Amino acid sequence: MKNVASVIVDVAAMQTDRCFDYLIPAEWTGSIVPGMRVVVPFGPRKVQGFVMELKEKSEVAKLKPIVEPMDLKPVLNNELLTMADWLTEHTLCFKISALQAMLPAAMKAKYEKQLVVEKDIHVENLPEPLRPHFLKGTAQWKSIEAAGLLPLAQQEVKNGILEVVYKVKGKTNKKMIRKLYLSIAPETIETEASALPPQAKKQRDVLMFWKDHADKGFSMKELSERAGTTASTIQSLVKKGLLVQQDEEIYRDPFEDRTFKQTTPLPLTDQQGRAITPILEKIESGIQETFLLYGVTGSGKTEIYLQSIQRVLEQGKEAIVLVPEIALTPQMVNRFKGRFGNEVAVLHSGLSSGEKYDEWRKIERKEVRVVVGARSAVFAPFENLGIIIIDEEHETSYKQEENPRYHARDVAIWRSEYHGCPVVLGSATPSLESFARASKGVYTRLNLDKRMNDGPLPSVDIVDMREELREGNRSMFSRNLFEKLEDRLSKGEQTVLFLNRRGHSSFIMCRDCGYVVQCPNCDISLTYHRFSNGMKCHYCGYEERVPETCPECTSEHIRYFGTGTQKVEEELTKLLPQARIIRMDVDTTTRKGSHERLLTSFGEGKADILLGTQMIAKGLDFPNITLVGVLSADTMLHIPDFRSAEKTFQLLTQVSGRAGRHSLPGEVVIQTYTPEHYSVELASNHDYERFYEQEMVMRKMGSYPPFYYISLVTISHEDLMKVVDVSEKMTGFIRSRLSGTTKILGPVASPIPRIKNRYRYQCLIKYKREPRLAETLKTLLEQFHQQYASQGLTVSIDVNPYVMM
Ligand code: ADP
Ligand code: ZN
Ligand code: ZN
């Protein structure tokens, strides 16, 4: 009999990163299974843990028993448990972090558990001892536990009568609606009606109303409207026991107010037909293959996703669609809901944890078969996957920047191999890695080179801002852009102005001596915020007021420099007072739903100019936009990151794609101080392939991906000498273990050498094939832990990093 459970405990530390054996108490033998969470004694504490496997016996002589299960059925299936092993190995994280990454936050946070009678099921169906606890349809887990009824309840969970639900503390939990049901047999309606007192005509009518709706439930409001009666009449029927009230869950649907226009598949064009055929073949045959769907914006990629998903659904399988967080707009979601209606769940970070949990439960309960979501939706607990689609596959937000540091693309490919299904990576500007893999035949490339409407890509002007300055134009708008802006205003057409705010675009600088105000804790300049006339550090949150005079030379000419969105807005208002402007940046979009509200009102023509940062680069598709201006194309080029040219190219291409998507032709103006840079020049020609070739040469010269893999080790501590010393030792250790063809750079100070008063050093490992890498880094972590962790040093390892700072 298997009554030993191997458990991963919820203590993220080096010493506890392994399975511990526990005894399964007799009453739970056979019911506790892998993938369930349990409460176990751990030292003096009780902690939660995940059951990984069951065994007949353990090497440990005296086993402590499991205290109790936390779930009555597994929350992670076999696939996800297996994937946790791979994820742990692949990203060098603790097993517990990998397991938790797969569950919605509501299940990790502090919560209360409830047992709930399933929808459409009567309390009568419960065994006698449980019934009194469920008269209201819901019982606290604690009270069932105290009554010793958990094992019985678990049986009912297995039978599909009860369900465990997490109530998020302090937040709204499940949303309930009270419904009325007929509580007598439908055949007896007439006899019961005639038994009512003669003056109770209204009550009789209501009762007769149920003749056609015997097994349906109605809310009080619905019933009084439909049966033409009042709440008090209905209440008297409840009192007489002829109707019953039951509380039922309704899902919080963040998109509930909207109605979706049902859409049907469009007849595909020839090029779409050629692209979709191989995908459909793999869906039919159930064979894994990774496709790179390379197609310019507006070339009909989304329609291909939709029709592929349709085939998957016809096969009785499920689909995951990943979309970058900022592109997960209602417009985007509507396209999927419009085609598949209630089959679609949506997961993104704008949802409250309760809402996310609701969506997750729809997946788990198999109420939906399509999930559209940001990065973590790749873990959706589907069991019969037929396709995984990653739109805008080049987006760096698919990489998680905390443990586990996974890339959604790798997880998607792993799952597709497990399920035998295709993965479709879609992009107009694929990541160099993916395009290189497609060129080598590792992925299969599918091309869409024409835009749907055969419309030309917008024409792009590059404006050299140095030239503008030389000719006496000190404004942030070039003459070219300004003329076009005025022109659109007079024609009533819309403009999008894009400001690349990454990089330090609005810092405080002394015009006389060049002094820049820095954060005292981090080696980075402070960002100016006009609203409070203050300066803030984006890394540690440090704030200070703008000085009146320069701390270095006491000059009064110290003020903000560069172009924040607020500054641009001010300038615009001055130059074009008649223009109606909507500004979208972190300051105007912090409130929930504000992002969407701003976009909607722009779409409705309530403004002439939409001014914003990164967040407006995607998904924006309005017919009246005929001009796109990029105020400073090069801020991102100067970030110390080997991907900066790639990111610049992608961003410029994406922004340009916002203009002229419909019948009106579009124009783009890109302002730059480095017009000769190939990423700027080639983006203006919409020439991805030449950019790819040129960038590959740079990557080869620098031994960067896709020619080499990289891993980044970062060490930090308050004491600079300590960091230097330890990072030298660690780099030496890595060097001694790895092969001669691997390049090990450093240790050197990180591009941001200090954050929150901790000095940071890094070592960069570049390798083509390094079988000993995982083992070496693991040993490094273990040794580090033993020798240095107690001294306050921290180390982080990022395999395939996307942030090099
Ligand atoms: P992408 O995802 O590549 O940006 P979309 O799928 O959004 O492209 O297509 C661009 C536009 O063309 C959309 O308005 C879409 O409805 C339309 N479209 C796509 N495929 C077809 C088709 N086969 N016939 C007619 N219109 C299409
Ligand atoms: Zn000065
Ligand atoms: Zn700081």
Number of domains: 7
Number of strands: 33
Q: Flag low-confidence runs.
A: none
- What CATH architecture of the largest domain would you give? 3-Layer(aba) Sandwich
What is the helix fraction of residues, given as a range?
A: 25-40%
Question: Which strand order spans the largest sheet, edge to edge or round the barrel?
Answer: 14-15-13-16-17-12-18
Give the biggest beta sheet. 7 strands, parallel
The percent range for strand residues is 15-25%
Distance between the termini: 53 Å
* CATH level 4 superfamily of the largest domain: P-loop containing nucleotide triphosphate hydrolases
Derived from helix and strand composition plus strand pairing, the structural class reads alpha/beta
Predict the CATH topology of the largest domain. Answer: Rossmann fold
- Please count the helical segments: 23
CATH class of the largest domain: Alpha Beta
Radius of gyration: 31 Å
Ions, cofactors and other ligands present here are: adenosine-5'-diphosphate, zinc ion
Could you characterize the architecture of this molecule?
With about 800 residues, the protein is an alpha/beta fold. It has 7 domains: about 5-105, 3-Layer(aba) Sandwich (GIY-YIG endonuclease); about 110-175, no CATH class; about 185-240, no CATH class; about 270-450, Rossmann fold; about 460-500 and about 565-700, Rossmann fold, CATH 3.40.50; about 505-565, no CATH class; about 710-800, Ribosomal protein S10 (Alpha-Beta Plaits, 2-Layer Sandwich), CATH 3.30.70. Helices cover about 30% and strands about 25% of the residues. The chain contains 23 helices and 33 strands. A 7-stranded parallel β-sheet has the order 14-15-13-16-17-12-18, sandwiched between helices. Strands 19-29-28-20-27-26 form a 6-stranded parallel β-sheet, sandwiched between helices. It has a 5-stranded antiparallel β-sheet with strand order 2-1-4-3-5. The longest helix has 18 residues, at about 720-735. The protein is globular, with a radius of gyration of 31 Å. It binds adenosine-5'-diphosphate and zinc ion (2 copies). Keywords: ATP-binding, DNA replication, DNA-binding, Helicase, Hydrolase, Isomerase, Metal-binding, Nucleotide-binding, Primosome, Zinc. One of its GO terms (biological process) is DNA recombination. Its EC number is 5.6.2.4.
